[in-house]
C-alpha cells in the first residue's frame, strides 16, 4: 500500500487458533492489517471472540472480522453481517453476530460489519499455513483493503 488513507474508526478482528495450522489464518491476517499502520484502523488478533470486544465495536464505523473455514473451494467468502436476534444472545459469545447484538443492546449501536472467511484445509496441530490458506489470505487482504477504502477516505 503506497498511500495511507485516513479512515474513521475501523476495527479489524482476525480470530482462530494459531496452534492449529490454517485455523490461525484469521490472526495472520490481523497481523498483516496491523503492519499497514493505517490511521484509525485497529487490528486485533485473538484466539476467540469475547464480550470484551463489544465496547470497541460500539465506537467503530466499520468492523471487519476474519476467520478460517473448512471448504473444498479456493475462494474467500465475504458476507455482510447483521446482529443476531436478541432472543439468541447467550452467555457464551463466539460469533460476530452475537457481538454485534450485544453492542446494539448495550450501546444502541453497532457498526457496519463484514465477515471475510478464508478457505482452510489443515486444522491439525502445527503453526504453518497451507498453500490454500496462504492464497486465501492474499485474496482476503485485497478485499479488506477494498472494504476499508470504500468507507469514505481522505488522503493525508
TrEMBL record:
Key words, A-Z: Hydrolase, Protease
Gene3D superfamilies per the UniProt record, alphabetical: HybD-like (3.40.50.1450)
A biological process term (GO) from this entry: proteolysis
GO terms assigned for molecular function: peptidase activity
UniProt KW Protease keyword: yes
InterPro entries linked: Pept_HybD-like_dom_sf (IPR023430), Peptidase_A31 (IPR000671)
Source taxon at top rank: Bacteria
Alphabetized PANTHER family for the sequence: HYDROGENASE 1 MATURATION PROTEASE, SLR1876 PROTEIN
Name of the protein: Hydrogenase maturation protease
Organism: Gloeocapsopsis crepidinum LEGE 06123
Higher taxonomy: Bacteria, Bacillati, Cyanobacteriota, Cyanophyceae, Oscillatoriophycideae
